[in-house]
TrEMBL record:
GO BP: any one term: cobalamin biosynthetic process
Purpose of the protein: Converts cobyric acid to cobinamide by the addition of aminopropanol on the F carboxylic group.
Tagged with keyword Lyase: no
Name used for this protein in its record: Cobalamin biosynthesis protein CobD
Amino acid sequence: MIGAGIALTAFALDHVYGEPSSRHHPLVAFGRYAAWIERQRYRPDRTSGTVALALAVAPIVAAAWLLTRSDLFGALIAALLLYAAIGLRSLREHVEPVADALDAGDLDTARRLVGRVVSRDTGALDASQVATAATETALENGNDAVFGALFWFAVAGAPGAVLYRLVNTLDAMWGYRNERYEAFGWAAAKLDDLLNWVPARLTAFTYALFGHFERALACWRTQAGAWDSPNAGPVMAAGAGALGVRLGGAAPYEGTWYERPTLGEGDPPRADDVRRGLALVRNGAIAWLVVLVVLDLVHA
């Protein structure tokens, strides 16, 4: 029961305390470290990006592996590392206020709040577009901040969860398809795609289980391939189908509106659909923890 106990402890800590403040968050400190490595190692080629990725990630994962092997404190350290890698409460705390603002008819506040968690321009979004952005964030970050980390914990312990979240962070920093990062960020983007391939599909199936199952699978099968990301596509298509809402569509980035493929079926989301998206993530996380406990009992 050690593995399940570690996971339950980590999620209990997340439920009670949420994420550490940005000033003390380990991933924020890692971001500063990665930015320093980028300044030292940047060249516009794949080799430099691959070396930078290794320099950023390998020492920390190795340290996590050594620390969790301690007979005295290994389990506690593993729980703390997994706690730092997940963000279930933080996801709710960032997304739910957007729904509250929409319910209150305060579109300006809703735009400002959703602008904290999405990369698109939010100043010109209408209410349904704000709800779309918030719902997409809930579904996609459910994979990145909850299920992906828990999957790699189950596969490779706390060092696996650490590896996953560090690579995920580097992809967010370096994985852009622009002149600066097209080559340098290639390794981070590809490794993030690889680490997310299985978790994303398990996340999509989880969303289907806790929503409209057949519609979720149909949207996943017919729509996911049109999305740019090979992993976000299944997650958001299945999530949209499970909720019975329509995601994707036009969104502004750096002053230009882009038409994105449609995901899901039905009307654009409203405030209550944002909360239903968060509920998919919460219920799925509980189910995954139950499965982890059962697997530990079977192998005890």
